[in-house]
Structure formats: structure tokens, C-alpha cells
Fold each of these.
Amino acid sequence: MTISSENNKGQCDLKESLLHRNPKKTVGPENIWKDDKLNRENFAKTLTNFIKGLSHPLVISIDGCWGSGKTFMLERWECYLKKEGFSTIYFNAWEDDFHKDPLVAILGQLEDHFKGKKWEEAKKYAMPLIKAGTNIFVKSVSSGAVDLNNINPKNNVFTEYKNTKENFKNLKKTLKDLIKKEEEAKEEKLPLVFIIDELDRCRPTFAIEVLERIKHIFDIPNVVFVLGIDREQLGHSTKCVYGQKMDADGYLKRFIDINFILSQASPSVFCGHLLSEFGTKDFMLKRGDEHKIHKDDFNSFEKFFPELCKYFNFSLRDIEEAVSIFTLTAKNVKDGYYLHSKLLAMLIILKIKKKNLYRNYIQSKCFPAKVLNYLHKKVDIKNFDPNELGYNKVEFGVEFQFLEFDIYATGLEKDETSSERFKEILQDKEKLALLHKSYSQEKIEKFSKNIENFYFKKINKMNIINKETFKHLSDKIELSSSFLDKDI
């Protein structure tokens, strides 16, 4: 199905627009950090120096919330480690959590790494541990409850226990021999690095059993496990398995030796990268536009949105979704159509973070005042933190007032005028002066005058928002979102 805009010059097939979401890039030794806009390379190199020369078993966690870029960093770090001479295994646990026993998935990863008779011997000892009922030993040593339903009444329970324990011991010894042999073949002593990503997204029982298998079977020299986790979410999984009164943090400390917290990325840097990567910047700046409306729209969004999203705790994944919606919306309006970028940014934020309020707002089931009240609760300009683009309090404050006015205006009919209300805002010089004490009254006057001039140019071009244009804009957002939901 092809859906295009209402103007030939502005036509843009939505399927074509989706191409801005580039396919997952192949990471090779020559371009490992080429697209690293968040400076994860330095973090990865610090970790590399830390594990170099380690011989004792170690479990490290890379702690970051969902959408913070853990997978991006871990995939590239694995490639970098290989380039540096390390033996590595990368395992996406979430893709394999359909297995009843994670030991199957872990050994499956090792089978791609180890070959030969010694590995066949290891599998021989592992098979009885994988069969139904033979996980009793591992559960008992990890303080888990023994499920009597798993015991075969035809067998002597103590014989079964002894056999399981012996297989467990032999498997661990065989794995130790395999890794030692691999280490001896290297010029430099480097541990095997086993990266397990997306562990916090797995079903709780699978995630916890992965930790227990690692600690009790793979606690062997020259092996470093690296876990990509959201520690808070993994704590919830722990409580799901062992009860809400469980000390989740204390439990995780039994298995994780060192926890590294992934630093928070800059929203403005990441947003700017995406706008270039998706082709949004080139598209909007080069688009035919007599009044530079598209250029103004782009510059406004690029500067205002990253600052606004800080107040709503946006993850990198949230920012990517928001920029995707903005890009598709911008590419599917006619030339010369004013996007009302600040309002568009706010609507996208509402859609991602406050779905019910967003839905009621665009369906005229609530007054604009309800959105304004929510916005005022979230955004406190007193706690403003300037970003890398040099946004200061006065600039952001005036832009924020534009947003307030646009939200107010979405409740107006097309033939109503709102200029008097906006004049009142601009004439409140005391309010503007409170935004930044270092600004003189003269500078405040000049700044507000510039904004007033811009505003009336906007009025003259009939670009003021109203119920009709608001409905048109929200329809474009919904159309763009529906394609993202289906195709990505």
C-alpha cells in the first residue's frame, strides 16, 4: 500500500520513508567504532585493560536501563576484543529463553567455539545434567528448592544424586582443560570472554538459572563472563522466583563480582546523530521552501526536543522512536506546511510516555489545560541544564512559552484569534527576567521583541495552530507510528 502527501512536490511514499531506518550494520575490524557517537569506545578500552592478564574466574555486569545502548557497546566491544587477540563468545540470552534449561543454550554457544574429542567428552557429561530431573544438584547448591516431582521413583534418589554430582564435577574439569589448552596456544595470556546480553529481558526463571549455571558450572580460571543487564529489572526477576521479600541486590552480589554502570548518553548528541543518519537533516534543509519554513522547523526540533526529553527520562531507544516519528511525519507533508515542531515534539513525547493523555488529547476528550498541567508538573525551568548546543535559560524559556501557547491554541477554532493572549505573555517581563538572573532588562526587552516580531510573521502567514491544523498534525503522527509499529 502506498500513501503519499497531498502535494506533488512534497510527495513521499511511506514505504520509501521507512528506509531511513537503516538495516543493522555489520561490525567489522576496520569499522568497529565508526558510528560510535556516544563515546563508548573509551569505556570498552577501559574494560579491555581491566580484564587483560586476568586468570581467576570473574563475572562482570554492564548495567544500563533498557534502550541505553548496551547491545551497541557489547557487540562492538566483542569485535574489538577479537582484534586484540581475545577469544570471545557473544550470546543473546533473550533469543534463547524458550529453552527450559539455559545450560542447553550456553553449551550450544560453546559448541561453536570448541571442537574435538575433549569437547565431545564435555558434552557426554553435560547430557545427563540436561535431562529432566537431573537439575536437582544444581538447584540444591544454589539454595533453590528441590522439586520432588522431578525424582524418578524407580531409581535410588541417592544414586541419582551421586551420579549427577559426578557428571557435574567431570564437566567442570573438562571445560577447565579445554580453556587451559586454548590459553597455552596463545602468545599472550588472555581470558576467554563470554558475553551474555539482554539477560534482564528474559523470563525470570531463565534469567536466574543462567546466573546459577554460570556460577556453579563455569566458575573456572581464565573465563570472564560479561552480563548486559538492567540491574533493577533483574532484581524484579529475582523476586518473581524467590518471593517479594527476597533481598534482590544481595542475591545478585553472590553471582556478580563487579558492576559497571553505563554512563548516560547526551540526548542532543544522539538526536543530532539520528537526524543525520535518517536523512532528516538533508531532506528538510534542502527542501524547496520560499519562506524557510522547513529549515525553521528542523532547527527548532533539533534544539528543543533533546532538552525537553530530559524532563521525561527518555532512553536512547525512546529518542530513536521519537526521531523516527518526526522524520516520517516531516517527509509526508506538503511543501510549505508548517510542522509546529515544538508542539510536534511534545505530542510525540506524550505518545511515548503518556499514552492515555495523548489519546484523549488528540480525540478532543480532554481540554488543552490538562496537557498544560501535566507539562508544568514535569518541566521545571529552574532546574534547567544547558546542553551541548548552548541552549540557555532565556532561549529555552521563550521556546517553552511558544509551546504553551501552541497547546492553548489547539482548542481554538480556525476563525478565532489568539494574538492578544500571546501579547500578554510577552509583556510579562518579570516572568522572563526570572528565567536567567544574568540577563539585563534591556536584553530581555530585545529578546522578547524579536520573538514578538517572529510571532506576528507567523500570524501573517496563517500558520497559527488551531483545532483543524492540530487534527491534521495528529493524523500524520498516527500514520507514521502505524508504519513503525508494523515494519520495525
Note: The chain has two domains: 38-261, 266-487.
Amino acid sequence: MTSRTRRSARVLFVLRSGGGGSLINVLLLVRYLDQERFRPTVLFYDSNPYVDDFREAGADVRVLDSSVSVRSMSKLVPHGLRPSRSEHRVLRMARRVNRFVQRDCPVSLRIATVIRDVEADLVQSNICPSADRASILAAGLARVPHVSYSQYFTADEPWFDRPLSVFADRYLCISEAVRRQVIQGVRVREDKTRLVFAPFEFPAAAGSAEAAARVRTELKLNGRHKLIANVGRLVPWKGQDIFLRAFAAIAEDHPDAHALVVGSPGDNRAGVAYEAQLRDLVSELGLTGRVTLTGHRTDIEDIMSASDVVVHSSSQAEPLGRVIMEAIALEKPVIATDGGGVPEMVRDGSSGSLVPPGDERSMAVALRSVLDDPERAAKMAATARQQARRRFSARTFVQTLESEYDRILGI
């Protein structure tokens, strides 16, 4: 790189996510980035409530009109016909191609136009290869290097994503579980990937006592109560029903325990129905007065500060699990389901407790252990925070990405 060394490199971050941990990770990256060397531009697929946050962090922000009409292929299959397994596979592949041609290709042309307008030197997509096909193709069309920061499990469709991988210079992965899955799902060489843990900001102290007291007062709980929090979107695979059944199993022996289910379904239809089921389950299990469904909250850190235990109950593997790390950062004992990237944060018996997904009995055993031996639980929580500060700091994350940018751009 010759002429580009005379100015800071322009990095375009493409964001198609509406919110959540993947977006927060990019916000932390922009916030800590050495902006004298790397000028960030953020391109949202649609209008987003985080636009002002990114501008305050120093990014130039653009919003893309990504609306595209995609014609369904359902009419190609006669009503009532049940395709064989091989035919079903062919139809699924045809649908993927149809969506790529009708949606991703037009969007990629719009992204390529933005790449040229902002004179980007590097493009970074931030979901996973199968979700970011449009931005990967756009970088190729604009002849600009591309980094895929994979924060979710990608589809196992190498017939689709392997050809596009010629436009991706590097695959940076949020966990080793995601990295292994990218290698398998895209069929890329291992040396083209790198593990880069998600960034977290660790408070100087393990939570605010004042904030914790406010939350407990709001919930009409005192210092004697043991507060067990489950934080996450209300959708079936998050496993809040498993959590409630596990809590019910220990509730009689721990009359001072109180469970919090923190989160909302948003506009997810299955989630709205699931929330109603959870409320019915509370009554069915005889837990009225012992469980609070808080709905959507913005004060998650305060709620965790007020809690004695944080439980992650997902029945499906998660790429990493930001809620778990938020609890660890506040030095709270963690019980989590064993799968995906979770074991990379929690080591069973030394920095927390891992239980099989969907296993309410094992979760109940772990809850009893934490409540019966709070001193041991506190030691594990302290160990978890100490280990996490070394592995998940925001500054380490940003320095790693900057070194990757330097290597790709030849700076």
C-alpha cells in the first residue's frame, strides 16, 4: 500500500442486525478504534436506534435502503405434493439461489456504491458468512479487501459460500465453536480463520450497591431474599420454561428464593405465545408470588447487580452468550447450558456450573449447590471474572482487529 499510507485507512462496517450483542460488539470496536489510523464508517441496512451511539463514538453513519421484493417459489410445488428427501434438498437449494439473486445481488450493488462513495479501503461484515453474502459480494465487486467477523453460526452451505470466499480475506470468529463451524460450513482453510473473542467492558467494581438496592426495593425484596435472574429474549429456544421448572424443584427448600425472568418477545409471534405459556406455567407450578416476569428492561446491569445467581437456559447452542459474560463481569455466580461457545467462558466446577441443555433436573441440582454453598459460588464467580478480564477485554479485542487490518492492508 503506497498512497493509502498517507492517510488513515477507511473501514466500512456493514450492519444488517437491528440490535443485540453483535451490534454492541461493533459499537465497542468503533469506540476503542485508533481513529487517527482507521476512519470508521458504519452502514446500516435500515434505520436503527443505535445511529446516534455510533455517531457519538466517532463514526460516519450511512443508512441503506435494503428493501427488495422477493417472489416466492412456493407456487412451483403443487399443493399437497410431498417431495422426497433428495427433492426437498434441491428445492431448498433453489430457494437459497432465488433469494440470493432477487435480494442479495441487488443489495450488494447498493453496498458497492457506498463502498466507492466513501472510498473504503476495507469492508467488514458482522453477522456470519451466510447472512452477509451481499456485503461479501459487494466488496468483491468494488475490489476492496473484506473481513468477515462471524458472530453467529453460519449455514452449512459450502456449495454457496465457498465460491464467495474468494472475496473474503479473513474470517474472524467470536468463539472457537463458531470458528470450527465456519471452517466446516464454508470449507475455508483453517489458516484463513482466527479466534477473536467478543469485547466486554469490565466495571471497576462488581456492580453498584445503590442500583442493586433500588431494584430490590422495586421488586419488594429485602437483603434476605436470594434473587435468581434469567435474562434473555422470550422465545422457546431460550429455555425459560426449563428454568422455571428447575426453580420449582428447589423453591420449597429455599423459601427465600425469588426468580426473575427478564426480557420480552418483541414482535416475535412465537415469542408472544411463549410468554403467555410462561405465565400459565408459573401458576401451574404454584410459583405465584415467587416469580417475576419483568418484560423488557434497559437496566440489565442493575438487575444483575441485585441478583445472587444468573442462569442461562438456552436449549440451542449459542455462539458465545453475551448475558453470561455480563454476569461474569459483575462477579455473579453463573449456571449455564453446556453448548456452543459457552464452555469457552465457563469452566464447570471452577468458574461456574454447566448443565446439559433442556435438563431441568441438572439445573435444579446446580441451583441447590449455589444456594446451599454461597461461599464456594462466590469463589467461582471471582475466578471467572479474573480469567475473563484477561481474555475478553475490549482493548485486547480492538488491538487484535487493528493488527489484522494492518496485515490485510499492508500497513
Note: Residues 3-199+393-409 form a domain with the Rossmann fold fold (CATH 3.40.50.2000).
